[in-house]
Write a structure and sequence with these properties.
The protein is an alpha+beta fold. It has a single domain, classed as 4-Layer Sandwich (Penicillin V Acylase, Chain A). It is 32% helix and 25% strand. The chain has an eight-stranded mixed beta sheet with strand order 1-4-5-6-7-8-9-10, covered by helices on one side. A six-stranded antiparallel beta sheet has the order 11-2-3-12-13-14, with helices on one face. Strand 2 and strand 3 form a beta hairpin. The termini are far apart.
């Protein structure tokens, strides 16, 4: 007994756990949210207690401009995506945590910067992506980089969402998808796939000027999980009538009924002159897809500071490698630690942004591999089959 006590782990010092919790769910939007919250209550409560970003968001929420932005955004989301608001409410009820805290997480930098227009603001986020397309295969690799408190505070939900009649009338559709989720947050803003042939990963991007009240990126990427065709995905991203309030890019693989595949990156930014998002779409056939956390094509005024410096440094490291031609090449790039301050795979204990996991989507093998340690020197902790069961129902 003494030996066990001597090696016990506290929540604060448990280190990098090689665990990928996966939950399989079926039900309405509220029900799947509730069951996620109930089953992962301790992880969600722990994250809300320790995440410094939430404390910053709450400080802004308690100002007149912050509360106005919160109320306006919530009102707009209840009109545009009421069933996703219900999903968040389900998580809150299941985990026994306040709804407003979870909604603040979804507003993210929109609320965090409401009283601060400083271009050198400290934006969270990371993620590095590299992919190639060959006649035989498409392989997409992604590091999931997030604030250090997110380490050990995530899970994967594999869901069959069956909307209630009320939600169907409001625009909800039946969904089948799998996505990594940060604790307490909607699926989609990470990496995952749906059963209509869509695979995607996300890179946080940081426009300097945001649009409080507009659609937070986490709602748009949640909706992206419903897309059955590239045209549907583009419509969701464009978000006409409102438009995104902040920024991101998504790295996408589409598989079609005839077996062909498309590989693309889409940069998404707020349109400061219209009620829609700005989209910049690039397809890849022979070139390597590479993307981190800065706009590469769309001309957007961005913040300065670590998120941009880190992105530039990681892109420099990625470009040092020969163009990938195999899955092993992807593993090697994702594991790169050439530049110590901003490595592609970040595990330094004092780093504010950590690589909490890495994912590789291998379209030939039809697998999604999730790593906790560097992919070039470890085995995946989880290996999920990718099934496109609804592919022939896209039209």
């Amino acid at each position: 007994m003494r030996g066990l006590i001597g090696t016990s782990l506290s929540e604060k010092h448990i280190g990098r756990r090689r665990v990928v919790p996966v939950i399989y769910l079926q039900g309405s939007h509220y029900e799947v949210g509730y069951d996620v919250g109930r089953n992962f209550a301790s992880i969600i409560q722990s994250f809300l207690k320790t995440y410094q970003g939430l404390k910053d968001f709450e400080r802004e929420y308690n100002t007149p401009s912050g509360r106005a932005a919160y109320d306006n955004t919530l009102l707009n989301m209840k009109q545009r995506y009421p069933y996703y608001v219900k999903e968040i409410q389900g998580v809150a009820d299941g985990a026994k945590v306040p709804f407003y805290q979870l909604f603040l997480l979804h507003m993210d930098d929109i609320i965090g910067t409401i009283n601060d227009k400083n271009s050198n603001r400290i934006d969270d986020g990371g993620c590095s992506d590299i992919a190639f397309k060959s006649p035989e295969n498409v392989v997409l690799g992604h590091t999931e980089d997030a604030p250090m408190e997110t380490l050990n505070h995530f899970y994967i939900m594999s869901a069959h969402v069956i909307p209630t009649p009320e939600d169907r009338e409001l625009g909800a559709v039946e969904e089948r998808f799998a996505s990594l989720c940060y604790a307490g947050q909607l699926p989609g803003y990470t990496m995952g796939f749906n059963e209509y042939g869509l695979v995607f990963t996300i890179n946080t991007l940081s426009p300097l000027v945001l649009k409080p009240g507009n659609t937070p990126r986490m709602f748009i990427t949640r909706a992206l999980l419903t897309a059955r065709t590239p045209a549907e995905a583009e419509k969701i991203l464009l978000d006409e009538g409102l438009g995104i309030g902040n920024g991101f890019s998504t790295n996408v693989i589409w598989t079609f009924e005839n077996g062909e595949r498309d590989l693309m990156n889409i940069e998404v930014a707020p349109d400061l002159t219209a009620n829609k998002s700005i989209l910049n779409i690039q397809k890849y056939t022979n070139d390597t897809l590479m993307h981190c956390n800065a706009y590469l094509r769309e001309r957007v005024q961005e913040v300065t500071g670590d998120i941009i410096e880190s992105s530039v440094t990681r892109m420099k490291a990625i470009r040092r490698h020969a163009p990938p031609r195999s899955r092993h090449d992807i593993e090697r790039v994702l594991s790169d630690t050439t530049y110590k301050d901003f490595p592609v795979f970040q595990t330094r204990l004092d780093a504010p942004i950590q690589t909490i996991a890495a994912g590789i989507f291998d379209m030939s093998a039809k697998t999604w591999s999730i790593y906790i340690d560097k992919p070039d020197s470890s085995e995946p902790v989880a290996l999920l089959p990718m099934t496109f069961s609804q592919l022939n129902q896209n039209h």
